[in-house]
Amino acid sequence: MTGLIWAACGTGFTFFMTALGAGLVIFMHSDDFSDKVRKAFLGFAAGVMIAASVWSLLIPAIEESESSGRCSWLPAVGGFAFGVVFLMSMDIILPLISEKAATAKHGHTAMLVLAITLHNIPEGMAVGIAFAAAAQSTDTALFGAAAALAVGMGIQNFPEGAAIAIPLRQNGMSRMKAFICGAASGIVEPVFGILTVFAVNSAQLIQPWLLSFAAGAMIYVAADELIPAAHTDDTRTGTLSIVVGFLLMMALDTAL
Question: Which parts pass through the membrane (predicted)?
């Protein structure tokens, strides 16, 4: 129950930060959200996700396997691969959904909304399982790592909420509808975070696999979606944003 409460609080915070980012559409003019700012947001999110995948997910998965006397690398490698395959499969399905659900004018934006909403699922799972692991252990460092992960995911969700809401506004949607769509993209995090806690509590053996699954899914999103989108010209905005996001998340993980 403790893990469930903390997971609900952690994923609730990440959802709030998504909504907060989407709220920029109410106060900003759509012209203020330049392409350079968008690339900086996406690069920053990628850096946070990469660091979180290593320090908050893969390393704890390996340590959990070692402490239980099982093969340390197998859950990390296997779960990571499953996460990548899952997101690759969704990449095949998403364009089909977009073609049916969106007009030509809004097709690209619909793809962005669907992509960010989809990759919020492993983020919610990651936060949920991190708090579940902390609740089942006497090691206080695990709780610090879970809190750092929630803070890091929340920080990178802020620009993601803006990255959804503001393009919708630029395409003619009202401010309030754009805000609701941006905020709604983060609702999957509390849902899947809480579901993951139940899964971990019922089958603790799969905990390292779930941690690694979330890491694989997040790395895939960063490499396939966010980093390329942050590097569509010759500027170094995307690169520097990735570095800043990575360093911030790494500092949070090691400090907490």
Answer: 6-28, 40-62, 74-97, 109-135, 141-166, 178-200, 206-223, 235-252
